[in-house]
Amino acid sequence: MGGLGAGLTPPSDGASTRRPHCVWAARPAARAGAAAADYAYTTLHLLRVAGLSDHESYGQALAGSFRARFPRLGGLVVAYLDFTPSATLDASSFFKQAKNDGAQAIYFGGITAHNGCSIRSQMAAVFGTGTPYLGGSGIAEDPACVRDAGSSATGISAPVRAGHPHQVSPA
After folding, report:
1. Other beta carbons within 10 Å of 45
2. Residues with Cβ within 8 Å of residue 107, at least 6 apart in sequence
3. Using the 8-state DSSP alphabet, how is residue 30 labeled?
4. What is the model's pLDDT at position 66?
5. Global pTM?
6. Can you tell me whether residue 158 is helix, strand or coil?
């Protein structure tokens, strides 16, 4: 994955439009939620976002840091769901509620093995594929994520832990 400075790799950089883009963030991983909130508010100019977490401490920490930071910037988290992962997870009613509440994007805190990318296709069924889907580094670094998200992989963005962006080779 490539990146430019402290921002998101722009889709016009020649990368596949199906490839998730990355926001550069520092450790610990829980700060990734705050970095995604900064990106959502200052770069994407989002004001209303809904959040999900996978009922694990890591996912709750990611979502918690996003939910704490985004309102401080002036945004609003309109809905939140802490779900128990399962092979048959159906989050469509949550997405419908989030859309009705004016969500412009979804933030996912958790790991990809806990439906991190398969729920992106459920989200796209309600919001369409152009709605941003933000989350932890796994949704950018796990090769299975793009497969699980299917044709809905466009619009996935995530912070990744990395050195200086000029030291990271583009994919």
Report:
1. 9
2. 33, 36, 37, 40, 49, 50, 51, 52, 63, 66, 70, 134, 135
3. T
4. 95
5. 0.78
6. strand
